[in-house]
Specification:
Strand 6 (109-115) and strand 7 (121-127) form a beta hairpin. 28% of the residues lie in helices and 30% in strands. The strands form 2 sheets. It has a 5-stranded antiparallel sheet, sandwiched between helices. Strands 4-5 form a two-stranded antiparallel ribbon. With 169 residues, it is an alpha+beta fold. It has 3 helices and 7 strands; from the N terminus they run H-E-E-E-E-E-E-E-H-H. It is globular. The structure holds nickel (II) ion. The site of nickel (II) ion has 5 residues, from helix 2.
Length: 169
């Protein structure tokens, strides 16, 4: 196992914008393997590289705990190429914000283009929880966080909790 500590809100690495991965070398394989181990240990649905301190456009999604037909997927240099006009509100959590769940509105369906560990491009369409998880993790690769998508009123309500998280990180 090569899990790494999960970076908590307040750490500037979560706000870094990542340059594309150009070489699909052992470093990238190690990064993905660390992501997978860390995600499994945390029993989360998804984890982005910035959350273990590496500002790279890489994330993993594992919905196998909630959907038996799903397996772990790796996304490198992801792009959202299409998003449905229809949006849905869903409660989201984030491993970098322990015990914080927020209702976030996002497109119901997305089409994503990304590369796998061998640098091979693929495209998938996702809806429901998978679309949700992909969009959340994609945001991380852009230095964006789910708290950027809440209303000013909700932001005011959680201001104290955010401050505490940032102070402890
Ligand atoms: Ni997150």
């Amino acid at each position: 196992m090569a899990e790494r500590p999960i970076v908590i809100y307040g750490d500037p690495v979560l706000r870094e914008t990542a340059k594309p991965v150009e070489e699909f070398n052992q470093d990238v394989k190690d990064l993905v393997s660390n992501l997978v181990d860390t995600l499994k240990k945390a029993k989360g649905l998804g984890l982005a590289a910035s959350q273990i301190g590496a500002a790279k456009p890489v994330f993993v999604i594992d919905l196998s705990a909630v959907d038996i037909n799903q397996s772990l997927k790796v996304f490198i240099n992801p792009e959202i190429v299409e998003a449905s006009d229809q949006e849905v509100e869903m409660e989201e959590g984030c491993l970098s914000f322990p015990d914080m769940y927020l209702k976030i509105t996002r497109p119901e369906r997305v089409r994503v283009r990304a590369m796998d560990l061998d640098g091979k491009e693929f495209e998938i369409e996702a809806d429901g929880l998978a679309a949700r998880a992909i969009q959340h993790e994609f945001d991380h690769t852009q230095g964006s966080l789910f708290i950027d998508r809440i209303s000013p009123m909700t932001r005011t309500l959680i201001r104290g909790r955010l401050r505490k998280l940032a102070a402890a990180s």
